[in-house]
Amino acid sequence: METKDRRTLVLADKRWLSARHMSPALFIFFILGVPIVVLTGVLVFLAPDAALESALVRLSHFDWSKVNWGKGVGALAMLGAALCQLIYFRWSEKRERLTLSSEGIRYTTPLPDSLKHLHPDWFLSWHEISRVELSAPKGHLANANVVSMTFYASSGKRRICPVMWVDPLTYLRPASRFSFRLSALPTYSRDEIVSEVMASAVLRYVTEHQPQIAIESRLEKMVSATSLEKDRHGRIAIAIIFGLMLYAFMDTLAGPESYIDAPSSLLHIYIVTGVLGALLSWAWLRRSLLPVAERAGLAFLVGLVVGVAMVPGALHINAYTDSATSSHHDYLVTFDAEGVVLRPVNDSLPSIDYFARHHYWDKYAKGDVYPVQVHRGIFGFYQFNSSVIIDDIHGLDR
């Protein structure tokens, strides 16, 4: 936005001009409602039915008269104050301004003096600026938005992203990019990025009105971002994803071990493993030249398939870490309406309700002893070797 003085330019951060703004009420709903819904869903999914029923019974008999409502109101007031502070900071960030005039460059925020230390205003006169340097984080040029412009002055140095600051009166908000189609993110050459940076309002103002300031560019020495199929890290990550998917599929079908209880009871193991896999892959992918969005997407996918691959993988780890001297235990063959249930002679072991009715079991009478190889390792759950039994059943069908 130009003032009456043609040499004065007032710029705003385009990130706030481009955003589809969310109303405060909807923002509060997402901050409060979504975590509550997600936590409730996780608890309902993980908790046993008996525990849920017991909790509901205790809740129905709870004496609300003994609740200390004073503390509750105080906690809600503190939470409300924190939310109001978040909304206020969002409001202030939208009104930050970068002013370029004949005197110098000035950054201002609408924050009161008591909060200025969080985002302090600053000013540099053109006379004290010795040089300007253009660079990118870690020497990687993903796009023009990551390029920083550092002003070196006698009073210190200040850094901005020049492409982010635009004239709010002439800036055209880009069309929504939301789409259900899966497509690769665009990549830009070094020349395209440099051209966009040099065409920014800040660079044009400095070169036109303050030509005495030396502009040093390190962008020519930096490596521009590459596409997924061309980057070594990207190809390795894709290979890991497909390799783990293939492993999970094959081991689930042909693995020798089987869960006694439903695998959903071990969801916490899969989630922790998946999160660890995502974090480690993100730390490794940070060395790549891929755009940040593609690195984050790949790290998420790696974490997801690591968690899925842990479903059959946990069986191998649990069996390998079984410290028992003998894993063979006697079970009693029993029958019910749906199939065969193997009940342990030792009451400390779980029953195995795994097999459907098959003529293989006709040779066993109710109560006959049947040896089963059971493991319990580092994860603490019971599993059994089902391949021996299934091979016997399939051998009878041949």
Summarize the structure.
It is built from 10 helices and 17 strands.
Side-by-side strand order of the widest sheet: 12-17-16-13-14-15
The chain-level mean pLDDT equals: 81
Domain module tally = 3
Contiguous uncertain segments of 5+ residues: 178-183
Instruction: Kindly state the percentage of residues in helix.
Output: 40-55%
**What amount of the residues lies in strands?**
15-25%
Number of helices: 10
Description:
The chain is an alpha+beta fold and 398 residues long. The protein has three domains: 1-47 and 77-172 and 187-225, no CATH class; 232-320, no CATH class; 328-397, no CATH class. It is built from ten helices and 17 strands. It has helices at 14-18, 24-46, 49-60, 69-94, 190-198, 201-209, 232-254, 267-285, 292-320, 387-397; strands spanning 9-13, 97-100, 104-108, 122-125, 129-135, 140-141, 148-153, 156-160, 165-166, 214-217, 223-224, 257-259, 328-335, 339-344, 352-356, 369-376, 382-385. The strands form four sheets. It has a six-stranded antiparallel sheet with strand order 12-17-16-13-14-15. It has a five-stranded antiparallel sheet with strand order 4-3-2-1-9. Strands 8-7-5-10 form a four-stranded mixed sheet, with no helix packed on it. Helix 7 runs parallel beside helix 9 (292-320) and helix 8 (267-285) packs across helix 9 (292-320).
